[in-house]
Write a structure and sequence with these properties.
6 helices
């Protein structure tokens, strides 16, 4: 049944040709026996032959079109399968990317923080030492105090209000600082007189 369903057009054509040939052969035998005129028979044969030629041509074209349609259907199926494979692979890649983003999200944030810290440190003056007083052994270390106020007070001055006046009150004092400018490895030294504005930007230009 499957074979007949697939090749019904050629099978029908062959069977029709066989039956037509058998019919014409029997008619010839009948008319030859009675001695009838063959002209009507010839006309019938010619018309039948023409019809069969048309039918055969139509059958061949139909069979060829059906074959092309089957081939195109197979190609479409292959394209659909390939497209489904690509969609599946794309979905898998998207899941992998999302998983990687989730996995490395913390690392990315840490790298951003380190990058921002490097940039911030590159723009910051590094205080190696700072001493406040009247000089020599009478000056005390105020390095941590200076670092603390530099990031919190604008227009910071070298004054007793900031660094204290417990030793030698009333005497003029100064702030001796050793520092490194941003993007530099050279240590500089500067003395800020009392009440002088501590401006490292001007010193590092």
């Amino acid at each position: 049944m499957g074979w007949l369903g697939k090749y019904w057009a050629p099978s029908t054509t062959v069977a029709g040709l066989f039956l037509t040939g058998l019919y014409i052969y029997l008619q010839l035998l009948q008319w030859r026996k009675h001695g009838d005129d063959y002209l009507p028979l010839a006309a019938v044969i010619i018309v039948t032959a023409i019809l069969w030629v048309v039918l055969i041509v139509a059958t061949i074209r139909n069979w060829r079109d059906a074959r092309r349609a089957a081939q195109q259907k197979e190609k479409n199926k292959e394209l659909n399968d390939y497209n489904n494979q690509l969609v599946g692979k794309l979905a898998l890649k998207q899941e992998e990317i999302a998983e990687m983003e989730k996995r490395y999200e913390g690392n990315i944030e840490a790298l951003k923080y380190q990058h921002a810290k490097v940039i911030r440190d590159a723009r910051t003056v590094v205080i190696n030492s700072a001493r406040w007083g009247i000089g020599g052994p009478y000056s005390g270390d105020v390095t941590s105090l200076l670092q603390f106020y530099l990031t919190r007070v604008e227009g910071l001055t070298a004054s007793s209000e900031i660094f204290g006046d417990a030793h030698h009150p009333g005497e003029p004092k100064f702030l001796e600082v050793k520092f490194v400018c941003p993007c530099s490895a050279v240590e500089k030294r500067h003395v800020f007189r009392e009440n002088e504005v501590i401006d490292f930007e001007a010193l590092c230009r």
